[in-house]
Amino acid sequence: MPHWCQNLYESHAPQILLYGRALGLSHSEAEDVLQETFLALMRKDETPEEPRHYCLRSFRNKALNYRRSLWRRLTRELESQRWFEGANSESRHERAAMNCLAKLPAEQREVIVLKIWHGYTFEKIGELLDLSPNTAAGRYRYGLQKLRACLNGEDYESLESAGETAALLDAAGTVAEP
Fold this sequence. Notes:
Elements: H1 3-22, H2 27-42, H3 51-67, H4 70-78, H5 92-103, H6 106-116, H7 122-129, H8 133-151, H9 156-173
């Protein structure tokens, strides 16, 4: 294995597996895709300009292709109740946070994992996902808002409708009165 691949694997494999989980893969599926990704990286003749970014982009593409299979889709649906496998040492609060994260829309969950666990900037997330940095930041902000609401026992869907109502009222307030 090329030295750069080995270093990348040793330093980032757990975070990449978590990213796979955020993309909707089971733990074993994420491991399979991670292996496929690193096999492809090892076959490259040259080291990519940004190895970590290239690896995540490759992993994401392989994960999305992997999910498209019908049989894998059925397996994934059966395993959807166990989005995160719990560790014996996790606290009740950690479990609650993981359950709330699992309930988020995939787009928001993906950005949160990339921002928090991978330390990506919104600009880098935008490059990886083909989004503007502002869209990535918005997904992150709304995802955190929903996480906070979920952890406080609130229904975040009611927050969305309240937010839409507030936005409409704000827009209506900008219209000049006669």
